[in-house]
What we know:
The complex is a heterodimer.
Chain A: H1 32-45, E1 52-56, H2 64-67, E2 71-74, H3 80-90, E3 95-101, H4 102-108, H5 110-119, E4 124-129, H6 159-162, H7 168-173, E5 178-185, H8 189-207, E6 212-218, H9 222-225, H10 229-243, E7 247-251
Parallel strand pairs in A: 1-2, 1-3, 3-4, 4-6, 5-6
Antiparallel strand pairs in A: 5-7
Helix pairs in contact in A: 1-8, 4-5
Chain B: E1 3-8, H1 9-19, E2 24-27, H2 35-43, E3 50-53, H3 57-69, E4 74-78, H4 80-96, E5 100-106, H5 122-128, E6 137-139, H6 144-161, E7 164-170, H7 171-175, E8 177-182, E9 206-207, H8 216-230, E10 237-240, E11 247-250, H9 253-268, E12 273-278, E13 280-282, H10 286-296, E14 298-303, H11 309-317, E15 322-327, H12 336-349
Parallel strand pairs in B: 2-3, 2-4, 4-5, 5-7, 6-7, 11-12, 11-14, 14-15
Antiparallel strand pairs in B: 1-8, 6-13, 10-12
Helix pairs in contact in B: 1-2, 1-6, 3-4, 9-12, 10-11
Amino acid sequence: MSAVAKVKMEQVFSPPRALKGKISHFCPGCQHGVIHRLVAEQLDASGVRENTIGVASVGCSVFLYDYFDVDVVEAPHGRAAAVATGVKRAQPDKFVFTYQGDGDLAAIGTAEIVHAANRGEKFTVVFVNNAVFGMTGGQMAPTTLLGQVTTTSPYGRQIEAAGPPIRMAEMLATLEGAGYVARVAVNNVKNLMKAKAALKRAFEYQTKGLGFGFVEVLSACPTNWKMNPVEANERVGKEMVAYFPLGVFKDAAKGA
Amino acid sequence: MAQRVLIKGNEAIGKGALAAGCRFYFGYPITPQNDIPEFMSAELPKVGGTFIQAESEVASINMLLGAAATGARAMTSSSSPGISLKQEGISYLCGSEIPGVIVNMSRSGPGLGGIHPSQGDYFQATRGGGHGDYRTLVLAPSTAQENYDLTMLAFDLADKYRNPVLILGDALLGNIKEPVELKPYRKKPPRKDWALTGCKGRQQQILKSLYLADGELTERNWVLWKKYQSMQKEARWEEYRLEDAKLAVVAFGSVARILKSSVDMLRDKGHQVGILRPITLYPFPSQAVKETAQRVGRLMVVELNTGQMVEDVKLAAECQAQVDFYGRPPGSIPTPDELAKEILKVIKKGGAR
């Protein structure tokens, strides 16, 4: 009988502390889970988890509090940036972030995000753009691509009826008050690393008191795109990135 | 002795808020309440507070929601059309049980209406213009002094019940200039263990109004209902020369103060008439109205609208008294003489008892 050798194992990997470890309820191939993971890693890396107040929005993103182990207040549809303004002004030493979808931020919440960015509010916005209203069943969003079929654009989005898709990152980058504005994707490892770097920088804008940070993350919604996860992920890289270019549009405090 | 100053009703609101420890104000300009944001923008920075002129009424109520979610005392103010826009936020404040003070120095409607005094927002204030089965406490001052006093009370009640409190005034109460005794605020705001301040040393806390699990929302609504029942004890009202009255006039806010002069004039002529003035519009002082109905036998409701509170008075009176009504839609402020004449018509008409 041989004794099992006791090997002292060094822990080299663990899920982020900022996540609760709840089993995902998101659809297969949905990228909310990946984005959660990236945000949680930054909460850990910045050492702010216990001093964080998250602002949940309306849509699939509302379940933020089920996944993140931080204080969370739920905002009405589109109002996360206004709620976060109140939170951050009242608790300037806390880390405050919103997590919003495109139906929320780019449609009903356009006024709130534009003015929060322009005031240079010192919180961080994670904007998940999957070009569709997800939770309500796949209706057209302001970010829906031209020709894209949704439940409210059954013949494909027409420019005459709906105008072209809105590029939020570019629009916000024009605002004098906005500090850091970037668009990233999580469709491959290379883009994941860039997304990670963008989130890190956006977090720094807050932790260093530099100003408003905004990261738009292109995301797949296989269910409402009527695609399988692989196809949906490929669509992000081909169609989404073609219209919504990736990159840093503004880094006002570069070097700081 | 407390300092006595001559100030506008709107300023009295601001001073009451500051005295009660409000350090966050979010608003958007609209007549006839602009003195409030103007006052707060000048005074809050002096006490380390924050004033933000928001991009909209919708944004300002949500900024209040955010600040109050962290336990801070926060206020917003507006006037009728702006209050309509805040209804979404008020519903969420109720659903998430976040306190806050919302001032409506109402103007006249519907629509853009005008800037005359009006009590056309009674239904909106007491029924809640937002969605869902909720209630808000509603305080109705009738003098600049009460603007000051009731604003302090509003913060206490908001914290006590973790619920928004509305102050319903109008163009007259906002702009009238009167002596106000600046009584010091002596209450100690409660501990807010529910507030979001980061989860250091404790479990994560969530303030939300979404409940999707089976039966969860039913339970949630019953919990809120119990709270609304417990608010009923907050009913407040004033009785004016009612002791031997044979007719009780029920009125609130600005018109109630004008009616006091009318009643004095009628009393001088030997008419036994008095006033019952609800100070809380929610909870409505139903018991006081019922007892007055039983004792006096005749009620007359006077409002600066075409008939809103009269419904609550009739419900509360439980058919124990004849209820007459005089309504004055916006456009002009009635004089004591005019109102005395209307009361006299009711007295002369006679009726039950």
